[in-house]
Amino acid sequence: MNQPLRMTKQRRLILEELLKNKSHPSADEVYRLVRARLPNISLGTVYRNLELLSESGLIGKLELSGVAKRFDGTVEEHYHVRCVQCGQVRDVEVAPLPEIHVAVQDASGYEIFAHRLEFRGLCPQCRKRRGIGGIEPDAAQSLSDEMGSASTRSSR
Amino acid sequence: MNQPLRMTKQRRLILEELLKNKSHPSADEVYRLVRARLPNISLGTVYRNLELLSESGLIGKLELSGVAKRFDGTVEEHYHVRCVQCGQVRDVEVAPLPEIHVAVQDASGYEIFAHRLEFRGLCPQCRKRRGIGGIEPDAAQSLSDEMGSASTRSSR
DNA sequence: CTACCACTTAGTAGTAGTTACTATTATCAA
DNA sequence: TTGATAATAGTAACTACTACTAAGTGGTAG
Asked: Sign of the CA dihedral A21, A45, A63, B111?
């Protein structure tokens, strides 16, 4: 489709950092990680390469709920959870649900190509810390406001 | 919880436009709509009121996949489809799936509060137009790149 | 009806994340 | 080794949004 990417020092380092990092860093986080090894790399280079690498299928790109894009060393399909406390994004080991496309297609008249499913909650570490430390009591409330909360209420 | 909002001309117009508009406009789109009726309204006013109105539960706020926030005249829970061609966001009439929280909770150790499910495809109008007009042939391809495509492929 | 004042506004400046541009440099096929 | 072309560093610009401030207004108490 498009010619192979030249493997520059910058591109290789970006790819390396993404493959060894399981936490789906944002472009800025990748920038900081790579700059530790190549101090004068340009932020623009990081952005351009993340884009090119995800176009060529070497990495995955996540666009989650209104905040900075994040990038993913593993390309296979999966869903994500974000911790509302520490902000970390992690993969969820749960079976995908492609059959739902048919239901949506019938209900909406759209031709459905893809879907994204994203969870929000507290990660194990923050759950522990919550018992001792201080998390604001209505985190769940404000969180479901923010997400439109397709979860508990069932009226329509 | 908090005192009732003063019903100013600006606030009323913003609310009116949202209630009669089914397409989940972005803040900027609301700005344009309201400005047609009140030409010197400030963009900041639109942003602040969308925030206040959604806080007070009069409208809903959507934060979809990396782009501008969108606002919603209907407050009840539902999922959304976005057309990859024209960008319109619409509601999907499909039953919510709260049971999945348990599965994710067991699999990840997270305490799950909420989830968001979002579809991408071609709306009925654009499906028709595609037959006649010219849509780039690999729209579905680039789209699934963009969404991480938790859809067709099933390896892991 | 009038006066008050906290809430709200218009206008503008500032911010974060991202993209675009340009002159210089590096990759890699021949 | 060389040369076309892709990629880079650095910077400017852009978009979506938030913060700030002086002036204006809605709604209540008198």
From this structure: positive
